[in-house]
Specification:
The chain is an all-alpha fold. The protein has a domain of about 110 residues. The chain has eight helices and two strands, in the order αααβααβααα. Strands 1-2 form a two-stranded antiparallel ribbon. The two termini are about 15 Å apart. This is Calcium and integrin-binding family member 4 isoform X1. GO terms for molecular function: calcium ion binding; magnesium ion binding. Keywords: Calcium, Integrin, Magnesium, Metal-binding, Repeat. InterPro entries: CIBP, EF-hand-dom_pair, EF_Hand_1_Ca_BS, EF_hand_dom.
Amino acid sequence: MPPLLVNPFRDRICRVFSHNNVFSFEDVLGMASVFSEQACPSLKIEYAFRIYDFNENGFIDEDDLQKIVLRLLNSDDVSEDLLMDVTHHVLSESDLDNDNMLSFSEFEHAMAKSPDFMNRDSFFQFISDSFLGMLIWRQPCDPAALRETPAPWHGGT
């Protein structure tokens, strides 16, 4: 199974890094530069923010945080109480102006307090490793199409 199929943020990665839901060579190069070990942390944080901003309103709000939690955990195992507790905990720790959402600067500040975010075993590295490992030029980003499009290294043509 191509790694993208198991990445919980595959649709967001596709949306953030592609144009018209199709990867061009330039899109691949741009993504590779962001996920490169040499990329500056602020650039990685910027793209992580964009991936986590599901509704693309320029903030990571309660709905975005809940989607993140549900994607990282098996949604069948997450009670409404746990979901609300985690969401409120993240906001209480990171929402500096108490508006129930994280601006980019608040997100950046929270990531600066989390040095593991940039480490190889971090979630962001998981995003980069699993996604870069399966890229094919002009690969459709529709998850249903990904299931129907075999990867060439898995016996596809």
